[in-house]
Amino acid sequence: MGLGSRSLLASAALTVAACGNSFSSADGADAGSGADVTTTDAGGTDAGSNDSSSGGGDTGPADTGPADAGKSDGGPVSSYCATHLGTYDFCEDFDSFTSVTPFLSSWTTFSQTGGTFAFDTTNVPSPPNALRATTTSSSNVRLLVIKLMPPATGPIARQRLEFDFLVNGATSTQFLSVAAVAAIVFGSDVSGGVVALGFGNGTGMNDTLEGLFLGPTPTDGGVPAYNSSNAPPPVPSPGVWDGRFAVEIDYPGPDAGSTGGTPACAQIYIGVTPQLTPCLALPPSLSHPPSVTSIALGVYSGGVENTGSIDVGFDNVTFVGQ
After folding, report:
1. What predicted TM-score, i.e. pTM, was given to this entire model?
2. How large is the greatest C-alpha to C-alpha distance in the chain, in angstroms?
3. Which of 40, 150, 184, 303 gives the lowest tally of CB atoms within 10 Å of its CB?
4. Which strand ranges, in their side-by-side order, compose the sheet holding 226-230?
5. DSSP 8-state secondary structure symbol assigned to residue 24
């Protein structure tokens, strides 16, 4: 089956899975489990500000001061975000929370349909906490926590979501299926389009890292744009924090990305090494910086078949749009 047919089928499957089951910061309700809690933080005030000071705030540096970092749980004063104060537009190291519950409530919205979030406190890059996402279903997983990013103050030429990444397990992803685990979101929910790092089924039917995009949901009920590109093998070693990973979008154009006819391009990085050759060209619907940007962590899966079991970890999450 050619790449075009595969992309069309996967796009259709993801669209069907998302219809009626996407979630938004404006919805105020989880599309799956009624026991899940969502918040409607509009981005200016952190719903969990009493629990988080080392990255939970929407304004980046204002919430990462060394006086607050690690205060609520006795962790180290010099947390990752405190020591990188002013470097990023947004930073979250999970270290000022006593448990995962106040962290989830401090972001804009979250869902635990088909999986669970927890804090990993064992051998994490930035003690005491890292975020762990584990699936309990092998299809149509909506295990996501989403955060609105601070608004840009000028033209945007590049957006970059970066994080320490752990793969405890990502097996048995079947053909024409994909699971996104970290994404730059166009708007406040996935229906506006995403550029993501995910797991798919690559050459030889082996699990592989992918860079992928899913375009905005069409208003006429059609199929959104979709495509993916495989990173070279192997996938990260199980149980090992494999360094810094990143999802990056470059927006070419005469005014630093806001206009121009050249398509934007997405890239996945491990350390400083780009993984996609060439970069993944984005469709016109994703070729200009969104007026509202969010980031998403967790697992969002869809496709014709199953995406298997996924267990991943995140720490020291940062975002820059410039």
Report:
1. 0.78
2. 57
3. 40
4. 109-113, 142-148, 293-303, 177-186, 194-201, 207-214, 226-230
5. B
